[in-house]
Amino acid sequence: MTSVAPATKRVVVAAPRGYCAGVDRAVVTVEKALDLYGPPVYVRKQIVHNKHVVETLEQRGAIFVEELDEVPTGATVVFSAHGVSPAVHAEAADRGLKTIDATCPLVTKVHHEAKRFAAEGTQILLIGHAGHEEVEGTMGEAPEQTILVQSPADVDGLDLPEHGNLAWLSQTTLSVDETMETVGRLRERFPLLMDPPSDDICYATQNRQLAVKQISPGCDLMIVVGSRNSSNSVRLVEVALEAGAKASYRVDNAAEIDPAWLVGVNSVGVTSGASVPDVLVQGVLDYLESQGFPPAVEERLTEETLQFALPPELRKDLRRAVKH
Ligand code: SF4
Hints:
By secondary structure, the chain is α/β, with parallel strands linked by helices. It folds into three domains: 10-19 and 203-300, Cobalt-precorrin-4 Transmethylase, domain 1 (3-Layer(aba) Sandwich); 21-104 and 307-323, Rossmann fold, CATH 3.40.50.11270; 106-189, 4-hydroxy-3-methylbut-2-enyl diphosphate reductase, catalytic domain (Cobalt-precorrin-4 Transmethylase, domain 1), CATH 3.40.1010. Helices cover 37% and strands 17% of the residues. The protein has ten helices and twelve strands. Strand 4 (76-79), helix 3 and strand 5 (98-101) form a beta-alpha-beta unit. Helix 7 runs parallel beside helix 8. The longest helix is centred in the N-terminal third of the chain and has 17 residues, at 21-37. The N and C termini lie far apart (83 Å). Iron/sulfur cluster (SF4) binds next to helix 1, helix 4 and helix 7. Isopentenyl diphosphate binds at residues 49, 82, 132, 230-232, 275.
């Protein structure tokens, strides 16, 4: 009689994962603003799309608001990493608010591209998701000249001249593969379509998707740590499934893991979106160990060294505070 050896369990954690340079800068901006000006510091929208980060900053005295009319006149308000439209900047100036703009420089780059195309009289096709703050901010740069394209299927419904003066731009946190499919369809219909001067999907989104693609084929289960409203985290679940993970779920933290997901599972992959502090990933790895899985092995695709300086308006006040 032959006996079948039990399958070996393993946990692979993807790298890069978690915080990107833009998220790190935005979170540190609110922390330093709280230290410098004292609470409360108002923040328009969630500074980054992560529940844990928002709750931690709230405990320190940040007040998150949806719109500027909730901010008292004369107060300090931070704009989130996702960016704001020129109309929001104008409203803040009208209200006499002190603003600190924590928009990620890679989102600002897309705003500049939109302004430049619009100034040249080019119609912009913005690939992105309706209602996402980043999309609202970018569209606000040239509302009359921007059309939102949410998926490859949207391309068929566009009522534009075949040889029109058109360019595409995109949200920074989309699936690279799906975006390229949409661009391919756009180009079939509009052969003169212009590209953005450089990639709009940012380095962090691309690296996290490539890293998860690398480990997905051998995984029975991929756990993605990230909040429901985090676009790049939700994309990681889709990318994992497309790349061969047998199942994939997004969780805010270890407490959201359903033990049923682990039944019959030998190989687990773990990653996290760009707004997720690593302590939450560690919580997931600890939970897996408590369920009989071995310590995780990291598979690193590449190193990330990019860092962004804090917003200039905050740096100026920090320098002044040091001098006094
Ligand atoms: S995901 Fe990309 S665009 Fe968004 S904050 Fe991070 S680096 Fe910036």
